[in-house]
């Protein structure tokens, strides 16, 4: 780690060691990269070098996802499937709430409250909830039958329609740089900066 200049060097070395032992058919639980020492080295490298800012993938075209959700509620025989419908509902809630899957899987039926204009649920823990205080999430009733994508697609849409402070609160981002990974400015937004100079 002393000669490394980024976390990816440590991650690549750890991956190579894992692969060599995997090819040699060493049982996974005996692989040295699973040891507490190796985990600690990887975590320290993350803290020391930080992670590079990567923009998330662009949102899926709405028409494509709409067709997917409409088709997804039936199984391969064309019969209604409650499990598939549940997954489609989870996708919609994750998008509207800017939720990670780790947040979504913590929601239980007793925590959901439905009203005529919105729904409310309690998340007892979140990835960045250091003090385990939990949080109440509010999601407005939508007028459409589909959504663009989960956290990244929802973040892009929400960021364009509200103040940055509200956006940060809704998505539970700790830092601006973490939130900016989910937003890629459009060409129009970038051009508007120099257009404002009116030269």
UniProtKB/TrEMBL annotation:
InterPro entries: Phage_Integrase-like_Recomb. It comes from the Eukaryota. Keywords: Membrane, Transmembrane, Transmembrane helix. The chain crosses the membrane at residues 80-99. PANTHER family: DNA ADENINE METHYLTRANSFERASE (PTHR34605:SF4), PHAGE_INTEGRASE DOMAIN-CONTAINING PROTEIN (PTHR34605). This is Uncharacterized protein. It comes from Cymbomonas tetramitiformis. The lineage of its organism: Eukaryota, Viridiplantae, Chlorophyta, Pyramimonadophyceae, Pyramimonadales.
